[in-house]
Structures are given as structure tokens and as C-alpha cells.
Specification:
Length: 246
């Protein structure tokens, strides 16, 4: 997946000044390479670093008492991950690369220093984190209240939308790069059940599959089947001043 900087991600919702963009660039200078399947941070591990994903794709999950896994979010280039260290001394979820990835480690004190110097960036970051929380709440509500087919349709739309923001060439055809088990762990289904729901979506001529590639044949129909709302696209920071004062 193409690279996208942390500054570009914030710039999606807030026009940045040259000084603000430079500050974010300095914050994410260091890099760490991860191969698919590599664990960046483990749940309950002590950590003082956050990370910005520069390229690739990752996921965050928690292990439940019965040993099962609940995937909380899929992470795409430009996203900030590991932000739970701002509130806790230990990581609250495990972060794993689902594709070959590059992350930029960010010391939490360095992030605080930048946010104090550039309060607009602090507000933009808070807004993006809130959008992630709302999107996660949507998925958890869907697990409790919607059909299995709707959950699978919604996660496919979410992944396609997130990939499309990074790569403008992605239209209705995309390769998620995820196993059916990983999709199932995101929506509370077994891999067998996910496969059954995918076949139903194919039978309804909403999607097509071939060699790991998904093609959305009827986006309006798929959205109706999913009841999906793109929360991240609706972030509105128009109320912020255009540039820093003082």
C-alpha cells in the first residue's frame, strides 16, 4: 500500500501551515520496518511510545478471557496507533502488521511538546481519535444488533474506503490482504460464517471475488445491506481558525 504521512492524515481534515507540517515531519523522522505478522506492541506490555503508520497495514486487537481475539481496528497509512499510552503505562491492545509495514515511533513526551506548541494540531488529533472511537462503537453496536451479513458488508466497505484514501487508484476493486479469520475476529464471526456471508453477498450480486480480490458490483445495495456510515469522512474542523494566532 502506498505511503502516507501523519501530517497528510491530519491535513485531510485541517489545512496545515508550513510550520505545523514541519513539526509533524520532525516528530516522525525515525522508522521501523515490520514484516507481515510481526508484533509491534503486546497487550499489557509497558510502553512510552506511540507510532504513526507510514506504509502497509496493521491491526489492533485484545485477547479475551476465553482465549479468543477481538480485532478493534484496522490501521492504515497516516494513522496514529498506540495512543493508549497517553492514558496508561501499559499497552491496552496488541498491534500486529497485516502486511509489510513501516512505522514511525513517537515518544509520548515529544508528542506532548509538539501539541503544546501547536494547539490546532492537538485539537485535530483529538478529533481523529474521536472519529476512531465512534467507528469502533459502530462496529461493536453492529456485533450486538445487526445481522452477520450486514457486519461483513460493513467491514468490506470500511476497508475499501480506508484503502481508497491512501491510494486514489483504488475504485470498486481492491485486495484487503486479510484472512477470513481476521475479518471474522473484527465482526464477531467464525471464518466459516464469514465465508458463508461472502457467498450470500455474491449471490445477491453485490460483490464478486477472485484470487483474493474483491469487486463491489452494487455499492448502493451493499451500503443498504450494511447500514454503513463512513464516520471518518465526516470529521469537520471548519470551526478551527485557519492558522495559529499569536
Amino acid at each position: 500500500m502506498p505511503a502516507l504521512s501523519f501530517a497528510d492524515r491530519i491535513g485531510d481534515v485541517l489545512p496545515l501551515t508550513v510550520i505545523e507540517r514541519s513539526a509533524l515531519g520532525d516528530l516522525t523522522e525515525r522508522e521501523r520496518v515490520l514484516r507481515r505478522g510481526a508484533t509491534l506492541v503486546r497487550q499489557n506490555e509497558r510502553s512510552v511510545e506511540l507510532f504513526a503508520l507510514k506504509s502497509g497495514m496493521m491491526m489492533g486487537y485484545v485477547l479475551l478471557d476465553d482465549g479468543s481475539r477481538q480485532i478493534l481496528r484496522f490501521i492504515f497509512p497516516g494513522d496514529l496507533l498506540g495512543s493508549d499510552v497517553l492514558a496508561y503505562s501499559k499497552a491496552q491492545q496488541t498491534l500486529v502488521a497485516t502486511a509489510d509495514s513501516v512505522v514511525a515511533p513517537i515518544d509520548r513526551q515529544a508528542l506532548v511538546d509538539v501539541m503544546l506548541r501547536h494547539p490546532r494540531l492537538a485539537l485535530a488529533l483529538a478529533a481523529l481519535e474521536q472519529a476512531e472511537c465512534v467507528a469502533m462503537a459502530d462496529r461493536l453496536a453492529a456485533i450486538a444488533k445487526t445481522s452477520a451479513r450486514a457486519r461483513v458488508a460493513a467491514v468490506l466497505l470500511e476497508i475499501r474506503e480506508r484503502m481508497g484514501r491512501v491510494d486514489a487508484a483504488i475504485g470498486n476493486s481492491f485486495i484487503p490482504g486479510l484472512t477470513q479469520e481476521e475479518l471474522g475476529d473484527a465482526v464477531g464471526l467464525t471464518s466459516v460464517h464469514v465465508n458463508r456471508m461472502l457467498r450470500q453477498l455474491e449471490d445477491m450480486r453485490l460483490i464478486a471475488r477472485s484470487a483474493g480480490r474483491f469487486t463491489i458490483l452494487d455499492e448502493a445495495g451493499l451500503r443498504r445491506a450494511a447500514g454503513h456510515v463512513d464516520r471518518r469522512a465526516r470529521v469537520d474542523l471548519s470551526w478551527l481558525p485557519e492558522q495559529q494566532r499569536g
